[in-house]
Amino acid sequence: MVLELQQHLQLVHVLQQRILCLLNQQFHPRLLPQKLLQRDDEVRAKWQDTLRYVLVDEYQDTNPVQDEILSLLASEWNNPTVVGDVGQAVYGWRGAKPENLIEFPDRWPGTTVIKLGANYRSVPRILDAANVLLDGMNDDRYEFRLIPTRENKPRADHVVTYVADNEWHEA
Q: Of 57, 92, 104, 149, which sits with the fewest C-beta atoms within 10 Å of its C-beta?
């Protein structure tokens, strides 16, 4: 009898875990706004009217769900504004797609792209190295040059590079 009860409780626990897993897949908190905006015309219209101008910073770090939310919110007025730098995309591990930024002008016809190349932080020698890396990006839509505004300093006479064997060594 006790063994039967333990097995029954284990089964209930397993079922609870599976139900929670299914709920998380279908109703993950980040998915709720997207699903609501997709399915409810009235809610979408209310938010589109409330948010006539939508600005998203660090757009290179948006994931497909966030990109879809922007599309749903900004489609009525067709005037989203995004800011980002593909060279600073750091959230690929959580599903971010820098392509969202690169492909933005293709998906939003009439987009004006303003590239801010002036760099106020780094000296020319560092930016020369960064420009070599940027030149190596295999995407013609992302041609970009960093322009120094500072002078070289004596300590910045060379750039040291390190090639790691793997991600662990890189970290």
A: 57
